[in-house]
Amino acid sequence: MKTLKYLSVLFVSLLTFSCSSDDETTPVNTDELNGLVQIQEFSNDTHTVELYSKSGTLKQGYNALSLRIKDKDSNDFVTDASLSWNPVMYMANMQHSCPKSEIVKTTGKQTLYNGYIVFQMASHGSEYWELIVNYSINGNNYTVSETIQVHPSDKQRVATFTGTDDTRYVLALIEPDTPTVSQNDMVAGLFKMENMMTFSTVNNYTIKIDPRMPSMGNHGSPNNIDLTQKADGFYHGKLSLTMTGYWKINLQLLNQQNEVLKGEEVTAENESSSLYLEIEF
Ligand SMILES: [Cu+2]
């Protein structure tokens, strides 16, 4: 009986072994996609480019995105591509892009690449976004592009404004993604519009924060820490939320000389800043 058991274990492991050696050329893709939901596929004659996020949708504001490229002939995923992208919004009387990162290979993954895009506007009627993905594999260049659907967010996750320096800025909330009643890590991206198609990271500014609950006498919270830029290029601080509900995060943007470029202090006479982000949880 014991021998039979050993034999069956041996048989099963032999089977498993032979299966996995057959699959050697095809990467195991199930773990690769842990926690990711496909948004859509982009296709050309040679490849399918798959676009993923945690939610499976694109929304107005900051979006962390993952991609992978499948070879249509072999059905294998490409592990050594270099990629770039360009989101373009086609509006009634103009075209523009938005802040975006480089695309890098995801650490610890074989087939995944990742980056972020900050959509400052949602798709709206006949005004739509197109995402162009350019990539090269072994020195050959390819491109795919499709219309993408950018959903409006009901709370303000991104602010687009002109500073007193006549510069156009985009400020996007990155964290907290899932706020709790605590001192949350707050992260924001700050970008400058160089022209309609080019956006760059703004360095060494300060973003002052003053979270308030307008529905409850506009009370604030203790122990907030203003946002300053860290090595990742983003602005980091602490956002104290003392209860669940709707919070307006009043902001002031200060340049390297500590001059206020946008936003006002909240006082007894002034209940909110013209620059703000919103959280409800
Ligand atoms: Cu637009």
| Mean model confidence by pLDDT | 92
* Ligand kinds: copper (II) ion
Q: What is the N-to-C order of secondary-structure elements (H for helix, E for strand)?
A: HEEEEEEEEEEEEEEEEEEEEE
Poorly predicted parts: 9-27
Largest sheet: 10 strands, antiparallel
SS class:
mainly beta
Radius of gyration using CA atoms only:
24 Å
Termini, distance in Å?
59 Å
How many β-strand runs?
21
Helix fraction, binned, reads under 10%
Strand content: over 45%
Q: Helix tally?
A: 1
Query: What is the global morphology?
Result: elongated
Briefly say what this structure is:
The protein has one helix at 2-22; strands spanning 37-43, 47-53, 58-59, 61-71, 82-90, 95-96, 104-105, 113-119, 128-137, 140-148, 150-151, 158-162, 168-175, 182-195, 198-201, 206-212, 225-229, 235-241, 246-254, 260-262, 276-280. By secondary structure, the chain is mainly beta. The strands form four sheets. Strands 12, 13, 14, 15, 16, 17, 18, 19, 20 and 21 form a ten-stranded antiparallel beta sheet that branches. Strands 1-2-4-8-7 form a five-stranded antiparallel beta sheet, with no helix packed on it. It has a four-stranded antiparallel beta sheet with strand order 6-5-9-10, with no helix packed on it.
Describe the structure.
With 281 residues, this protein is mainly β. 7% of the residues lie in helices and 48% in strands. The chain is built from 1 helix and 21 strands. The strands form 4 sheets. Strands 12, 13, 14, 15, 16, 17, 18, 19, 20 and 21 form a 10-stranded antiparallel β-sheet that branches. A 5-stranded antiparallel β-sheet has the order 1-2-4-8-7, with no helix packed on it. It has a 4-stranded antiparallel β-sheet with strand order 6-5-9-10, with no helix packed on it. The radius of gyration is 24 Å and the shape is elongated. It starts with a helix and ends with a strand. Residues 89, 91, 96, 121 line the site of copper (II) ion (CU).
